[in-house]
Queue: 2 jobs
Job 1
Amino acid sequence: MALVPLAYNLRSLWVRRASTFLTVFSIAATVAVLAGVISLEQGFTAIFAESGRRDVAVFWRPGAQDEGSSIFKPEYADVLIKNSPDIELDASGQPLAAAEMFLAILREKVDAGGVVFVPIRGVQPMSFTINADRLRTIEGRDFAWGNDEVVVGRKLVGRIADCRIGDVLMLNTTPFRVVGVIDDSGPFAGEIWGDLERLRVALKRDAYNRVIAKLKPDVDWPALQERQRRDKQVPADVYSELDANLRATERLSRILTQLGMALAAIMGVAAVFTGINSMLSAIASRTHEIGVLKSIGFTAGAIFSSFLFESVLVGIVGGVVGCALSLPLNGIQTGAMNFNTFTDVTFAFKTTPTVLVTAFLFSLLLGIVGGAWPAWRAARMRPTEALRHE
Amino acid sequence: MPFGLIWHNLRRHWLRSALTIGSLGIALFLITALRALVNSLEAGVRGAAGNRIVVGSDVSLWVQLPTSYQAKIAQIEGVEKLIKWQWFGAYYQTSADLFAQWAVDKDVLFDVYPEMKLVAGSMDEFLVRRDACLVGIELAKTYGWKPGDTIPLLGNTYPRADGGAWQFYCAGVYEARLPVDNRSMFFDYAYLEQAGEAGETMYWPGCMLYVARTAEGADQEAVIQAIDRLYENGPYKTKTQPESEFNRQFVTMVGNIPALMAAIGGAVSFAIVMAALNTMLMAARERTRDLGIMKALGFTDGTAFALMLVESFAIAAAGGLIGVGTALATESAIAFQLSANLFPGYEITPDMIMGAVAAAIAIGLVAGIVPAWRASRLRAVEAIRAGA
């Protein structure tokens, strides 16, 4: 089967450039929105997923759905740490494990007004040891143990009230002094850290929320999880830090993905309508030409694929333009509520390969759907009638 | 006015007309729906009652205030009724089934929240039975619950010591408007308290919020200050706010995403409208020859003008009708879906419909006025020659 030369389609697209441009534009807009929303979701998930380690275990109360609802009595946390044979020891034989307290506290937002929940974490010295490879103090100093001092995550500085070095953070009735700024590739960059025991006193909290521990190499995870679940003294659910982090992203991820899909589907229909319209008028004005093509021997299949190709080409160009439009978003910071913990998260649009491939495939789909029916109509034309058409 | 001609012209390129109308319909639907979405965030603020104030911890919603505060707050002048709210944090079947359960003082629930109406079941039973609960109408619909059912819930905030499920007796179904949503469950705080005291769950005698109904003519600001002054020095510092202020906090918490969506959607709708406009203008240009013949037959300039304008309006009006119609037809389904994802209050208001209608009129005018003007000025001879 001889194919219609591609140059024919390219020239035709150029001749009707106004309507080609509009179709490209509407496909590009649709693709850009899809890419934008998915890159938002990717940026949000990345904070939690990329920083999660597989050799760090997180212990939660059995059945707890999030860190805030997990509770351990202090004496139980100590027992848990002492009795777990899988926890790595440091040079002096101490288990590399820490109990932590987590609370979402209400703070004022200075950049946009209003209030948000900011995570505050009461930690033990081992928390720093376990996170030594990723946690850095980038300004000021660490808080002193036993003092009413805190360090704040880099992302809070300038966004949340009382989060600069030297500021005083009022927690219930106790003033805490901000003495340093910490940075982390993961969620800690959006948290406030202080001495677990001082924070517990100020916030009048009896219990701890979780235990984290560095595990020995080659730990048998299923066995560890099973044993801890059945433990007589301190039953607990054990997750890798990665899994625990991912559990905290489910809801916002789902909301973003669904919203993106819904918008893209609705806009996609409109883009397809525009595409069909411009293809139809292109074919109508080329009826005579189609007659000529047919009468010199091009088959219906050749004509169908030629016109489908023309539409797919428009889709591809739209997809590329749309992806290009979404690229400048990469890295732009935005804030949203994490619906699992209700705390505020700052994250950036992240244009990953997944985003671009999804967006591009979607544009291809729009091109195919928009071109199939007009191309079929062109292929079905009778040469004699088409030739008669002026 | 030759209406038959308009109909014929729209039908001659029926597919093109239909697709253009469809595009406009989608754009107008998007504009309306996105406005409703952004608007829904404020629903809790708009619906707030002027005579309710909310007392919570100054630190966090997750820090409880002791139950011992209740008697002291109730004594403050201007506080007429006082109700505890405690988050129960349980789930039905799987943790993905997310809805709020509140332990409250059930005897004053309907006094403080007169917007709640019982639509099924028995209030007496709710008040008498210890394990009774009321469920919102949307919740009842989602899970098929009706009065008399037993509802087992797995505790997350309050897991049972025996590892089993909490059993609630569904005494009735309520319907309310925001700020009380229709996806909540209410039961008596005493039920939780007794279970806690019996050691069935880890329990601390406290609650997330106290909500006070203030007396008519009471100085609300004074009441607020009086409450916060009580606990200025602890043990648990309070933060008291009018209900509208309290609800407003959550609007800013959601973050930039809804605004972002609205901006994107608005821009895209604009793009769709531009594309549709272009099609309409192109279609009008193809008509030069037809118009020339009509003029030669004796149609006046005015008729030609009106013909083109009305045709454009007909397409815009049909698009507007589809857009508004779709928005209204999908309203309850979208509202239900959003509400299930923690965003209650999605509603298409007359205001939004007027907005879409105005947009449709503007589109009809913009797409129609230039072709109409050109049609009225057209000279038959030239038109026929040009169109050949």
Job 2
Amino acid sequence: MDKLYSEIFAGHDPAVLEIWRKATVGIAGAGGLGSNIAVALTRAGIGKLIITDHDIVSNSNLTRQQFFLKQVGLPKVSALKDNLRQISPYTDVSVYNVSVSPVNLESLFKQADILIEAFDDAGEKQMLIETWQTLYPARYIIAASGIAGIGKNELIRIERSGTLFIVGDPGAELQPGVNPVSARVAVVANMQANLCLELLLEKGQD
Amino acid sequence: MAGIVVNGRPIEWEEGMTVQRVLDRMNYSWRMLVIKVNGTLVRKEAWSSTLVPPGAEVSVFHLLSGG
């Protein structure tokens, strides 16, 4: 690795950085959750990210998603890839401007050591969790459920069953027409990213 | 009396008890659920046909939109 890499990651524990550099993480969705997760994992030095989203950046996304005004109208995955490259060019980012389905999930994410669910719609969350857990019961999936509201940090928690983790406030249902608020969606996103980094280290030390 | 445990709560087991019957017994009417029986995921298409054995541990996760 070159001088810039050494300087960017000068403050990382070298043994930890090496585990993260060799990891591949899948992120299904590049909205409020996925864009924040991708930023956190790029700053951590994850070697490869696979990110999918079928949507384009809109003005109303700017309240909580990691995009800029000049990117409105671009596919979210292209805009996010550009932004991640501005943070660190050392994360290899593969993006797919598609909707994930039971048919294409395996071909999109088969390389992922861990999959992070970052969809909006509960039905899509269910589809992703069911399909991934059926295909790869031994591989971790970190989902999110319950990001609405303001404050109430203490109600955000992690539920677990085996390799499945679900992060969020189980009582925080979105009201129609009201978008999530930046801070709380970013808290959940960063808890997903933080858990992912922790699980990679546990795997790396096996 | 044989029993099962659903989200940490013990309930009575019944002969022929399916995953769907467990949901009905628990009054879980939300459709966006993820369900595991003894650690194995049961897809929603199989809720009505999958039997829950006595002593089973059932985890039911509610999924809310937003992301």
